[in-house]
């Protein structure tokens, strides 16, 4: 067992199957209704159960690991573009060559199977090359959000036991060289702003040693149940899940996918980047702060399918040239940048999707991307292949299956799953008679803004360090889904802009409240029980 496993993997039962088991059979309909899974999921009885339920031929097989996936694609489409990001381009052939050089560079630094290698990059070629290089030697990819403050980055570097960090020098107004100069964690040995390159004959041996149940990535949540947690996924689980999802949405090698999700979160990493490579397609994305330049890119590169967060492209529709643009995409969910005849008259009559880091991206989806009957208004589709679901009496959605995460890094198994192997998502849903799911909200007070989760408690604590008592909540917003809002409790006037400016140095930008109001302690709305009236708090913003 490698050092990183001894150091942090604290649950007793490994939750990853041998590769031969994963590749030969997989859940399609889930567990038998009459039997709970054994406590040790990959026990002999469990493997026999899997073998008794072969995967449907239409979902194919799971590719063992990322390097094999890219190598296989190069045999048939070596010069096809893998990524187009603004003025950056890289083909599958070039990605194979450059990632081999960087993989050898990592080996020269002492990296190997199980080494945790962090990536601090915006979407682009360096992220792709760094990710592939790390995966090819069996090291574990740890992507970091470009939004992180110094404190947040230090916390995640320490939590993940990252040993090597590959980083951009900066991005937009972020100076990572300066930010990382003061970061010191016990495991961090190298911080590199230039990708390491070398020639090492050992590379093929490391690639041959890869196994589908090896960890591929530790991807941090945006904070769905408190502080962000590192979610561990294996090669086989992430790649196999994306293969199934590609079959459902029809993503093939002929497609060009426009995705506005960042690669450091699961939507971009799994449903965007990995899905593109599994299909052999081309991924198109943009980091430009100029909406005109992004519109130029979309119009010139002619994507056939889209996915991501609509809130992330809302600014494009306000550009003066938007009405005259010619869009080509005919599938996906970024309707404003799709062909006009493919946009819904009523978006609520198109299936939405529900995904999370723990499920390796989307878990509720539907292949029918056309308008639905009125009774399916607001539908999120049905469970993806390989996932069994149940809904508790409270309405909370629970899931389990082979594409589910291994667990949270550094946490005990019981912190992640219940005794029967179910993961409790915290999402409240209902299911209709036809098996379609409808999202009702979060079990807690979590705020979901532009696809990111914000914990009110985290923002309240940050404000408290500034000597400010506040209550943080989410307000409905047509563009972002919810806005982060704060009710500051004070008898005295408050300089809101000064508070906002100081808060930006403490938490990620998307966690900084966009709406503030000040309320005297005596005027705080309360219930008859004396507890805070959250509905009353929201009404304070009505004016």
From TrEMBL:
Domain named AMP-dependent synthetase/ligase: residues: 78-409
Transmembrane segments: 263-284
UniProt superkingdom: Bacteria
Lineage summary: Bacteria, Bacillati, Actinomycetota, Actinomycetes, Mycobacteriales
Organism name: Mycolicibacterium porcinum
Domain AMP-binding enzyme C-terminal: 469-531
A GO MF term: acid-thiol ligase activity
Identification of the protein by name: Acyl--CoA ligase
Keywords: Ligase, Membrane, Transmembrane, Transmembrane helix
InterPro entries: AMP-bd_C (IPR025110), AMP-bd_C_sf (IPR045851), AMP-binding_CS (IPR020845), AMP-dep_synth/lig_dom (IPR000873), ANL_N_sf (IPR042099), ATP-dep_AMP-bd_enzyme (IPR050237)
